[in-house]
Amino acid sequence: MKKTILIITSLFVFAVGNVSAQYSETNNLFYFSQRSPEANQLNPAFFPSNNAFYLKLPTVGFQFGFPLALSDMIYYDEASDKNIISFDRMLNTLNNSSQFRLGVDANILGFGFRIHNLFLDFNTQLRFNFNLGLPVDLLNFLTTGNVDNNNEVISEITLIDGDFFNTQAYLETSLGAGYKLPILPLTIGAHVKLLSGLFNMQMDNTKITFNTSQEFDTVSAHMYYELMAASFAEMDTTGGPLAIPGNMINNLVAHPMDAVKALFDMGGNTGIAFDIGAKYDLGPFTFSASINDLTAGIHWQHNILGFVPEGGMVPIDFGGLDMDELLDNGTFNLDTLSNYISSQLDKMKMQVTEDATDYWYSIPTKLNVAATANLGILKAGVLFHGQWDRGLISKKNAFELDLGDNVKNTFRFNTTISAGLNLFNWAELILATSIVSDGNKISPLNPGLGFIFTPATILQTYFMLDYASSIYLAEMKAFNVKFGFNILIGGGGRRKVLGF
Fold first, then answer.
1. Do 89 and 77 touch, CB atoms closer than 8 A?
2. Is the pLDDT reported for residue 360 higher than 60?
3. Is 190 exposed, middle or buried (0-12, 13-18, 19+ CB in 10 A)?
């Protein structure tokens, strides 16, 4: 017993002592559930012990994260009795890795069935994510100007450098199996997944610099970007990159069978991923671990487009405007200003590059390590969750995975502490808090709440809210919510619906 408690304590200290990441893109409350088949997606060694079959009906989940809460941008000043926007508060909260994150995962169809100690499962999900980097250096420039702490002029300031945004959508088809060893209290499981890419767009190698002369008589900026896009459906560049989604929809409507064939073409925009997991029972204590989405990502090979500025590194010079031209007999001359702005925007025009080639884009790999204690109707646990996000892996030599300097390998992780109640054998309540960091400070209270109801032993409904960064709307920065229905067959009564 002392050894077991020592293991749990060590896991807790390790997890809390190394928090240095943002919110997870996975709803980890399912990891603690005794009832929901969703737990199998987080650890393939978790499977029903009392139900012979389950069917997952279409569900949807949302992930949202923004590094600034409303209270970080606006505060109430008692002296003036006004709400004031504060750039200083924003800049003290942000760092160069701050991102706006949006994700959607929708379950299309899933089922699983048990044959003695063997469990087989199948699942299909649609996943979408969007990440946008915030220009912290630009905000600093707008606040402090082009002077340093010693009031010396900084002749060149980098406003944006690196990946600016990325978005990806793909279909995940999973086939898995779990097996409970008859001799040892050990359960093992694995999934193999086919990743079918729907759409990928990312702005790689973006750089914007701002230059001023010592005399402040001229101001100039230089901008460069590389926009890459790929899709399972044919893309039309008419109208530029912003018109691509609409053009894709038109092609899907006009040629639906061609698009379906391209989606499952193994030589197309596809990838393979693996999950492995294990669970070890020691009386009232259970230890488990899993690694999800072991993969090089999706190999985007079809319908690839690249966009770069027409003139390469775009120079934008500003030496002032002639006020005699800008003001005509006391009237503001909009044509003069419009012509000047148009001349600068013309320099930023995109052109399709002929250098666009196949590339790999990663799927985040996730690690879960947990310890739980089952105390009758009460279940308590601690979970360490880590996540590697490499983004764009390679733009050439894709099959050889010549990673080069393109891998950013961002690692974010957190800890979730939970307590669950198994009520009346047909209802489950889960309360949790996650310890996370936004890059500047550790936040110990990010509550989670889950309800799972199976009143008729067959139809199950659930709602999971995880990583709510605050119980106050003005202070909330992130949340992860998922809800849906399952059908359970071959068990029930007064027994647990699922036992992990």
1. no
2. yes
3. middle
> End-to-end distance of the chain based on CA atoms, in angstroms?
21
**What percent helix, strand, coil does the chain show, rounded to 5?**
20, 50, 35
> What sections of 288-364 are H helices per DSSP?
323-326, 334-346
Given the structure tokens 């006009």, which residue do they identify? Answer: 254
- Opening angle at CA 186, ends 185 and 187, nearest 5: 130
**Alpha-carbon span 248 to 240, nearest angstrom:** 13
Which pLDDT tens digit goes with each residue over 304-325? 887 777 665 555 555 555 555 5
CB atoms within 10 A of CB 482: 24
Q: Higher confidence at residue 407 or residue 383?
A: 383
Type of residue at 464: M
The angle, 0 to 180 degrees and rounded to 10, between the axes of the packed helices 256-263 and 244-254 is 110
Measure the CA–CA gap between 136 and 147, rounded to whole angstroms: 16
Contact between residue 438 and residue 93 where contact means Cβ atoms under 8 Å apart: yes
Among 248, 304, 293, 244, smallest CA distance to 271 is for 293
Residue 332 burial class via C-beta count within 10 angstroms: exposed 0-12, middle 13-18, buried 19 and up: exposed
The tens digit of pLDDT for each residue in 28-46 reads 888 888 778 889 999 999 9
**What are the helix (H) ranges across 80-129?**
87-93
Contact 210, 141 (CB under 8 A): yes
The Cβ of residue 80 has, within 10 Å, a number of other Cβ atoms equal to 8
Which H or E run contains 91? helix 87-93
Report the relative pairing of strands 392-394 and 359-361 from DSSP bridges. antiparallel
Per residue, what are the HEC states of 374-395?
EECCEEEEEEEEEEEECCEEEC
DSSP H/E element including 288: strand 285-294
Give the pair of three-digit tokens for residue 482: 């998922």
DSSP 3-state of 25 = coil
Nearest to 34 by CA among 379, 314, 344, 459: 379
Can you give the pTM of this predicted structure? 0.79
Nearest to 178 by CA among 288, 270, 271: 288
State the virtual CA torsion across 468, 107, 175, 196 in degrees, nearest 10. Answer: -100
Query: Residue 309: beta bridge partners?
Result: 350
Beta-strand ranges (E) seen in 392-446 are: 392-394, 410-423, 427-437, 442-443
User: How far from 57 is each of 196, 427, 460, 488, CA to CA, in Å?
Assistant: 21, 19, 10, 11
Where does residue 446 fall: left (phi above 0), alpha (psi -120 to 50 degrees), or beta otherwise? beta
Walk me through the domains of the chain, giving residue ranges and CATH numbers: 2-232+268-310+349-489 (2.40.160)
Instruction: Give me Rg for the CA atoms of the chain.
Output: 26
Least-confidence region, from 52-66, 69-83, 298-312, 340-354 = 340-354
